[in-house]
Amino acid sequence: MSKCLKCGREAEENNVFCPSCLADMANYPVKPGTPVVLPTRPARTPDHRPSPRATPPEAVIARLRRQRRSLWIAVAALSAALCLCAAFLLVQWLVPEEFPSVPIGQNYITSTGSSEGNVSRETSTPVSESGG
After folding, report:
1. In sequence order, what are the residues at sequence separation of 6 or more whose Cβ sits closer than 8 angstroms to the Cβ of residue 75?
2. What is the largest CA-CA distance in the chain?
3. Is 18:10 a contact under the CB 8 Å cutoff?
4. What is the separation of C-alpha 49 from the centre of its chain, rounded to a whole number of angstroms?
5. 119 φ, ψ to 5°?
6. Which residues contact 125 (CB under 8 A, 6 or more apart)?
7. How far apart are CA 58 and CA 65, in angstroms?
8. CA 109 to chain centre
9. pTM assigned to the model
10. What is the pLDDT of residues 71-107, one digit of tens each?
11. Contact in structure between 75 and 67 (CB atoms under 8 Å)
Protein backbone atom coordinates (compact mmCIF):
# COMPACT_ATOMS: atom_id res chain seq x y z
CA MET A 1 0.00 0.00 0.00
CA SER A 2 1.12 3.55 -0.71
CA LYS A 3 -0.02 6.93 0.56
CA CYS A 4 -2.34 9.31 -1.27
CA LEU A 5 -0.49 12.37 -2.62
CA LYS A 6 -3.43 14.64 -1.81
CA CYS A 7 -4.51 13.67 1.70
CA GLY A 8 -1.92 11.14 2.87
CA ARG A 9 -4.32 8.26 3.51
CA GLU A 10 -3.71 4.72 2.34
CA ALA A 11 -4.07 4.25 -1.43
CA GLU A 12 -3.93 1.10 -3.50
CA GLU A 13 -0.48 0.05 -4.67
CA ASN A 14 -0.82 1.23 -8.28
CA ASN A 15 -2.86 4.38 -7.54
CA VAL A 16 -1.50 7.79 -6.67
CA PHE A 17 -4.70 8.93 -4.92
CA CYS A 18 -7.04 7.21 -2.47
CA PRO A 19 -10.64 6.32 -3.49
CA SER A 20 -12.04 9.31 -1.53
CA CYS A 21 -9.81 11.82 -3.33
CA LEU A 22 -10.50 10.16 -6.69
CA ALA A 23 -14.27 10.55 -6.10
CA ASP A 24 -13.78 14.19 -5.09
CA MET A 25 -11.68 14.89 -8.21
CA ALA A 26 -14.32 13.23 -10.40
CA ASN A 27 -16.68 16.07 -9.42
CA TYR A 28 -14.22 18.58 -10.94
CA PRO A 29 -13.04 17.12 -14.26
CA VAL A 30 -10.15 18.66 -16.16
CA LYS A 31 -10.60 19.58 -19.83
CA PRO A 32 -8.64 17.44 -22.25
CA GLY A 33 -5.29 18.96 -23.21
CA THR A 34 -4.88 20.85 -19.93
CA PRO A 35 -1.41 20.28 -18.54
CA VAL A 36 -1.59 18.67 -15.11
CA VAL A 37 1.38 18.40 -12.83
CA LEU A 38 1.13 15.59 -10.38
CA PRO A 39 3.08 15.85 -7.18
CA THR A 40 5.95 13.47 -6.94
CA ARG A 41 6.64 11.22 -4.04
CA PRO A 42 9.63 12.34 -2.04
CA ALA A 43 12.56 10.02 -2.44
CA ARG A 44 13.26 8.07 0.69
CA THR A 45 16.80 8.60 1.80
CA PRO A 46 18.24 6.79 4.74
CA ASP A 47 18.74 8.97 7.75
CA HIS A 48 22.51 9.16 8.20
CA ARG A 49 22.44 11.51 11.16
CA PRO A 50 23.76 9.91 14.28
CA SER A 51 21.12 9.39 16.90
CA PRO A 52 21.41 11.78 19.80
CA ARG A 53 23.05 10.26 22.79
CA ALA A 54 20.87 9.97 25.80
CA THR A 55 22.12 12.13 28.65
CA PRO A 56 22.44 10.20 31.87
CA PRO A 57 19.87 11.21 34.49
CA GLU A 58 22.62 12.17 36.94
CA ALA A 59 24.00 14.75 34.50
CA VAL A 60 20.53 16.18 33.87
CA ILE A 61 19.88 16.46 37.62
CA ALA A 62 23.24 18.17 38.19
CA ARG A 63 22.56 20.67 35.38
CA LEU A 64 19.10 21.45 36.74
CA ARG A 65 20.52 21.98 40.24
CA ARG A 66 23.12 24.43 38.87
CA GLN A 67 20.40 26.29 37.01
CA ARG A 68 18.22 26.43 40.13
CA ARG A 69 21.15 27.73 42.22
CA SER A 70 21.90 30.42 39.63
CA LEU A 71 18.25 31.42 39.56
CA TRP A 72 18.13 31.76 43.36
CA ILE A 73 21.28 33.90 43.33
CA ALA A 74 19.76 36.17 40.69
CA VAL A 75 16.50 36.46 42.66
CA ALA A 76 18.42 37.27 45.85
CA ALA A 77 20.51 39.93 44.08
CA LEU A 78 17.43 41.55 42.54
CA SER A 79 15.63 41.48 45.90
CA ALA A 80 18.59 43.14 47.62
CA ALA A 81 18.76 45.83 44.93
CA LEU A 82 15.04 46.46 45.27
CA CYS A 83 15.32 46.74 49.06
CA LEU A 84 18.23 49.19 48.77
CA CYS A 85 16.33 51.35 46.30
CA ALA A 86 13.22 51.31 48.48
CA ALA A 87 15.27 52.21 51.57
CA PHE A 88 16.98 55.08 49.74
CA LEU A 89 13.65 56.48 48.54
CA LEU A 90 12.12 56.08 51.99
CA VAL A 91 15.01 57.95 53.64
CA GLN A 92 14.79 60.71 51.04
CA TRP A 93 11.07 61.05 51.73
CA LEU A 94 11.17 60.85 55.53
CA VAL A 95 14.33 62.81 56.42
CA PRO A 96 13.86 66.57 56.10
CA GLU A 97 16.54 68.63 54.43
CA GLU A 98 18.81 69.80 57.25
CA PHE A 99 21.24 71.94 55.29
CA PRO A 100 20.40 75.12 53.39
CA SER A 101 20.82 74.88 49.68
CA VAL A 102 24.33 75.86 48.67
CA PRO A 103 25.50 76.39 45.09
CA ILE A 104 27.38 73.46 43.60
CA GLY A 105 31.09 73.62 44.38
CA GLN A 106 30.71 75.88 47.42
CA ASN A 107 31.26 74.01 50.65
CA TYR A 108 31.18 77.01 52.98
CA ILE A 109 28.82 79.82 53.95
CA THR A 110 30.03 83.38 54.18
CA SER A 111 28.63 86.01 56.48
CA THR A 112 29.03 89.74 56.25
CA GLY A 113 29.29 90.38 59.96
CA SER A 114 31.66 89.02 62.57
CA SER A 115 30.98 88.70 66.26
CA GLU A 116 34.67 89.31 67.07
CA GLY A 117 34.85 92.73 65.51
CA ASN A 118 36.57 93.87 62.35
CA VAL A 119 39.32 91.49 61.28
CA SER A 120 41.62 92.10 58.34
CA ARG A 121 41.56 89.31 55.81
CA GLU A 122 45.23 89.61 54.93
CA THR A 123 46.74 89.54 58.42
CA SER A 124 43.92 88.19 60.55
CA THR A 125 44.65 90.96 63.01
CA PRO A 126 42.13 93.43 64.30
CA VAL A 127 41.99 96.66 62.33
CA SER A 128 41.80 99.88 64.25
CA GLU A 129 39.00 102.19 63.49
CA SER A 130 41.33 105.14 62.98
CA GLY A 131 42.71 103.53 59.81
CA GLY A 132 46.31 103.04 60.91
Report:
1. none
2. 133
3. yes
4. 34
5. -125, 130
6. 119
7. 11
8. 49
9. 0.35
10. 999 999 999 999 999 998 888 877 766 655 666 666 6
11. no
